[in-house]
Design goal:
alpha+beta; four-stranded antiparallel β-sheet; 245 residues; two-stranded antiparallel ribbon; single chain; binds zinc ion; 2 domains
Amino acid sequence: MRSLSASELLNIWEWGRNQPSWSKAIKLLASACSETSIDMLTQLSLGQRDAMLLTLREWTFGSQLLSQVTCPNCGEVLELNFDVADMRVASLSLEPAEKYCLELADYEVSFRLPNSLDMIAIAEHTQPEIAQEVLLERCILGAVSDGECLPFQQLPSDAINAIISQMALVDPQANVPIDISCSTCNHQWQSLFDIVSFFWAEIHTWAFRVLREVHTLAVTYGWREADILAMSPRRRQFYLEMVAG
Ligand SMILES: [Zn+2]
């Protein structure tokens, strides 16, 4: 994986405006990992995918993660400041996701972890219960009870819940909780860190800023967009300060 140039990032932003989250994630990684096939990227577990996106985010915008949340209790807008290292709960790995086995009291279940292909498959299902059922049907590879194979639909809900918990346990980067505490009312709650939407929101803000900078420099100096984008941010900033006087 390598970092993305300003021009590449702008092209991805332009392409991705109306794309679903999984598609944006794969596009970013495919652009940064030309040595890895799209097939392989889409088969990474969501945690493996997100670990790579977190690294790409760090290379693009640095190690600080700034965000705003509204306290659900008092409505105060809070500034959150994290480090990429705080959000990294699993090491970066490109090994194909394995098959896992879970032994429960009456059942033995084998499963694999959800990946981007599963996200594509469930995208059309707007009802969460149906989407979860389709996802489990794809990811549960086999269930055995008393030596007999069972379709996953015959597993009781506590077995299903145990499988979902085990999936989260072996792929922690797919669900990174953030503990938030309100400085005004002391309310405490937990939120999930979604690297795809976080990174994309930053790319969106960045793209608007860079396009305005390109506009200013192009109008002032007559330079081409490609040449302005190829400049380092520092050099671009220098010229912008000259223009502002
Ligand atoms: Zn509060």
